[in-house]
Write a structure and sequence with these properties.
With 267 residues, this protein is an alpha+beta fold. Helix content is 29%, strand content 23%. The chain has a 5-stranded mixed β-sheet. Strands 4-7 form a two-stranded antiparallel ribbon. The relative contact order is 0.17.
């Protein structure tokens, strides 16, 4: 039996679900993780907790289903999208806690940008309102407030990503730093019409290109990931993945063509 393993990385817990070829649930594992509230209006996660719980439930679900890597046709990821992580490329260590999508610490930055008349520019290019909800001002805050972060970012020592990028980095052992348009479009940094990072928006928020992930097509080659001692390459969407409503980053067990396919609801 060939199955799909869906990874659902949410705001309060990480979950893994195994689906069979008829999209029936074979096994589920879920684990909550710590919520961090440093002060009113601030919400953080420990990125290490995110990876540890997601990796843990991935293996737990496989064990419950009595499966190993050879039984997995694809792995899909769905994630809390705007939550922002910056980490060291050399070690994979985050430079600070992740700033969660709910966090409002950059509201004043957005107010200032609106007062400068920038709102229409951001709306035209990104389709978004200027709001602290989105990842771009969160990344700016981390670079501005973590000692030495700006200099390190300019030297290319740091990587930025939303949670899909953080999981892909770990699933591939740091070999792949990537996202797709559905996540990039939630950063305030991505021109949705040209389908690429926008230099004007990056300059306004003072975000160096060197920290950005590669934006890959929502369906295309990604990488391989080690799962249960076996190398699992990625391939196109399977029926089971399509049925996991917002599952996206596909890693299948085809031996040649690692790829990714993304499906999500849009808010």
């Amino acid at each position: 039996m060939r199955c799909v393993l869906a990874l659902d990385q949410g705001t309060t817990s990480s979950r893994a679900i195994v689906f069979d070829e008829s999209a029936r649930v074979v096994a589920v594992a879920q684990k909550e993780f710590r919520q961090i509230f440093p002060q009113p209006g601030w919400v953080e996660h420990d990125p290490g907790d995110i990876w540890a719980t997601q990796s843990g439930v991935m293996h737990e679900a496989l064990a419950k289903a009595g499966l190993d890597a050879r039984d997995i046709a694809a792995i899909g990821i769905t994630n809390q999208r705007e939550t922002t992580v910056v980490w060291e490329r050399a070690t994979g260590r985050p430079i600070a806690n992740a700033i969660v999508w709910q966090d409002r610490r950059t509201a004043e930055t957005c107010d200032r940008l609106r007062a400068e008349g920038r709102a229409a520019l951001f709306a035209r290019k990104t389709g978004l309102v200027l709001d602290a909800y989105f990842a771009g001002t969160k990344a700016k805050w981390l670079l501005d407030h973590v000692p030495g972060a700006r200099d390190r970012a300019a030297r290319g020592e740091l990587a930025f990503g939303t949670i899909d990028t953080w999981l892909i980095w770990h699933l591939t052992g740091g070999r792949v730093h990537a996202t797709d348009p559905s996540n990039a479009s939630r950063t305030l940094l991505f021109d949705i019409h040209r389908g690429e990072w926008d230099d004007e928006l990056l300059a306004i928020l003072d975000i160096p290109r060197a920290i950005l992930p590669q934006v890959l097509p929502s369906s295309g080659v990604v990488a391989t990931t080690a799962l249960g001692g076996a190398e699992v390459p990625g391939a196109g969407t399977r029926r089971g993945l399509q049925r996991t409503r917002t599952a996206r980053d596909a890693f299948s067990c085809s031996t040649r063509e690692p790829a990714r396919s993304r499906h999500r609801t849009i808010c």
